[in-house]
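Journal club side-thread
Mid-discussion, someone asked how the predicted structure for our own chain would compare to the paper's figures. Pasting it here so we can look after the session.
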Amino acid sequence: MANQCAAAKGLTDIFYALADPTRRDIVSMLVRGPETVSVLAAPFDMALPSFMKHLSVLERSGVIRSDKVGRVRTCELVPASLNDAERWLAEERATWEARTDRMVAFVEKLHQENTRAQGKRKRRQ
């Protein structure tokens, strides 16, 4: 149970981190490979301390990691951290697709029954 709670918290942290468009843009930039904070921050119209808060959220969630050498901090994506989110989304997708398939089958059956009932009514008249 404790392991499930830890996994759920990790998933919550990842989705929280990815909820912000700025952080999603940062992740998209890091897909191409590690980058320095200055390169990552350049496209964004915000003060560096505000940008660093975004990096902090991503790092706390485990989506990225950073390393500082001298005065240069480099960030990189941790792709494995997204596996839990990807797995959860796949499970949810499968559940909803199965529900949709059942609903389609139900609607088709209902339509066939209604069509048959209408045919019987027309023959009686």
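Post-session note: The first helix runs from residue 2 to 18.
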